[in-house]
Design a protein that fits this description.
It contains nine helices and seven strands, in the order H-E-H-H-H-E-H-H-E-H-E-H-E-E-E-H. The protein is of the alpha/beta class and 277 residues long. The protein has a seven-stranded mixed β-sheet with strand order 2-3-1-4-7-6-5, with helices on both faces.
Length: 277
């Protein structure tokens, strides 16, 4: 496995840009005891504050659970935006993703951070300079224990380029037809699969935006299917369904309700099929 997937991912950029916006790919913490849904975005939004946080924490992010906003939930600084930084949780982006896959699977979903040992989780967050209160630790411990025990799937979030920029990001990208870009995408997807303890745990790769879909569509060793994507033959043998969503579940340009219904049906069918195996 390539040891610096953040650096590898930035081969999709036309040339070197602002190093302060570079960030590492998340350090993988994937359990061997749950099926995996791999969610692929294009790049992490935000700016320098977010990149600095990721460099200090090796890409740890808490995503979002409703428990974070309970009376005894997390400190506001952890879950609210401040000076363009999203802290460690971002409801607007991650709640629609969590809700979609929870409903499609009919099961609870564990984010990747649930696989950290608690002491390491606390230490990694505090590497950012944030001091966890006892209430923060209690909330994280509750979610950690709940979703390790009750979740059926673990949802792993990855991107194609580890560079924190939102506006005009697509102008930085190499063409989809560029041979180095295509090789980079294959190396990234294969490397992400390599981090899963057993490739057969991977039940679905979901690709969110139109731009990321265009890149992933260049993968070799595939068979187009009518579920809105294709089967990717990893290492020539492990058959992995890849769903091409085309639009995000959230934010500007998000998917329309009718397309979302069709997408939901495809994802549910694939996961239902897996549950029957």
């Amino acid at each position: 496995m390539n040891k610096d997937l953040g650096e590898l991912s930035r081969k999709l950029l036309k040339e070197k840009y602002n190093e302060s916006l570079y960030c590492p790919a998340p350090e993988p913490h994937i359990s061997g005891d749950k099926p995996v849904i791999l969610y692929i975005g294009m790049n992490p939004a935000g700016g320098k504050d977010d990149a600095d946080r990721d460099k200090k924490t090796n890409g740890l992010f808490l995503n979002y659970y409703e428990e974070f906003e309970d009376e005894n939930g997390l400190s506001e600084m952890l879950i609210n935006s401040k000076e363009n930084s999203k802290g460690f949780a971002y409801k607007k982006y991650f709640y629609p993703i969590l809700d979609f896959f929870t409903k499609a699977s009919g099961r609870k979903i564990a984010w990747e951070w649930c696989n950290y040992p608690l002491d390491e989780l606390y230490k990694r967050i505090e590497c950012s300079g944030f001091k966890l209160s006892e209430s923060d630790k209690k909330c994280l411990k509750h979610c950690h224990e709940k979703y390790i025990q009750e979740a059926k799937y673990q949802l792993i979030i990855r991107d194609l380029v580890y560079y924190h920029q939102t506006k005009d990001f697509n102008t930085l990208l190499k063409s989809v037809s560029d041979s180095e870009a295509q090789k980079t995408v294959k190396d990234l997807i294969d490397s992400y699969i390599d981090t899963i303890p057993n490739a057969n745990q991977l039940k679905l790769i979901y690709v969110s935006s139109a731009t990321s879909c265009n890149y992933v569509m260049t993968l070799p060793n595939k068979k187009i299917e009518d579920f809105g994507g294709f089967y990717y033959f990893y290492n020539g043998c492990v058959k992995i369904p890849i769903i091409l969503a085309g639009r995000q579940l959230n934010g500007l340009g998000r998917i329309d309700n009718y397309s979302k219904i069709r997408l939901f049906s495809s994802v549910k069918s694939l996961l239902d099929s897996e549950n029957c195996n």
